[in-house]
Amino acid sequence: MKYDVSVVGFGDNVVDIYTHTNTQYPGGNCVNFAVYSKMFGARRSAYMGYFGDDLNADHVISALRTEQIELVKCKKIHGENGYSRCKLEDGDRVFLDYNEGGVRSRHIYELDEFDLEYLAQFDLVHCGNYCYMESQLSKIKEAGIPLSFDFSDDSTDEYYEKNAPLVTYAFCSFDGTDEEVRQHLKKVAALGPEIVCASRGAQGCMLYADGKFYTQKAAPLEKVVDTMGAGDSLLTTFMVGYLDAVKHGADREEALTGSIAKAAGFAANVCQMEGAFGYGKEVLIEKLRA
């Protein structure tokens, strides 16, 4: 299915190194966002950010080019690309450590007027907690460009208070009871976002918009291969489907419920893939020892 929606992921790219198999995969919240939107049928999908100039960067770039992701606003910087080390436990990904984004955390992508003109071509810009782009969010907000943002389960109250007012659509992963989730969503929505969504793994997800809660069960799976990217794929495909439905005149509630149901199905399919979206490559032994 094709969707008349254009999106750009602005921020992180990494390789996820699976220490139990000595295999690495391209990933990162914003890279995943760009790739999943393309897979789902978005009209235009782009990634915008900085890469290192090592083999890990080349691995991610090669995968993005194969997936036909627009990269015209990317740049290579001398130094190490971002990576994380992780493992799987019964198909569930567990992060071990990471290098704080490599060059990205030391070279912030400072948006200028021409970058903002580029971003304004898209229906949605997406960013996240580990992108090191917080200083740029106000520029996107002031330019009137819709922004989705993926908060982390370790985002503090102070972090939400500072950044949520700059965000149009807020996402997070959240463990807790139904009531705890509802209270968290209401608290975030009070800061400004018009839609807030919490992904809850096998329990599905919960949305809050216009003073109403919407729940969506996770699609049934016989076996989970790898949960890497499950939350990213859920938020990506929800946003693409929702924006397309609204653009074509769908009722707001219908757009919300229909889009999150399709997103849950897509996320289940992603859990059948190795890595976030494949492209596994054997890891260099010296990288594992670094």
Architecture blueprint of SSEs:
Blueprint: E1 3-10, E2 14-18, E3 23-27, H1 29-40, E4 42-48, E5 50-51, H2 55-66, E6 75-76, E7 83-89, E8 92-98, H3 113-119, E9 124-128, H4 137-142, E10 147-150, H5 157-163, E11 169-173, H6 178-189, E12 195-199, E13 205-209, E14 212-216, H7 230-247, H8 252-270, E15 281-282, H9 285-289
Parallel strand pairs: 1-4, 1-9, 2-7, 5-6, 9-10, 10-11, 11-12
Antiparallel strand pairs: 2-3, 3-15, 7-8, 12-13, 13-14
Characterization of this structure:
This protein is of the alpha/beta class and 290 residues long. It is 34% helix and 26% strand. It has 9 helices and 15 strands. It has helices spanning 29-40, 55-66, 113-119, 137-142, 157-163, 178-189, 230-247, 252-270, 285-289; strands at 3-10, 14-18, 23-27, 42-48, 50-51, 75-76, 83-89, 92-98, 124-128, 147-150, 169-173, 195-199, 205-209, 212-216, 281-282. The strands form 3 sheets. The chain has an 8-stranded mixed beta sheet, sandwiched between helices. Strands 8-7-2-3-15 form a 5-stranded mixed beta sheet. Helix 1 crosses helix 7. The model has no long low-confidence stretch (mean pLDDT 94).
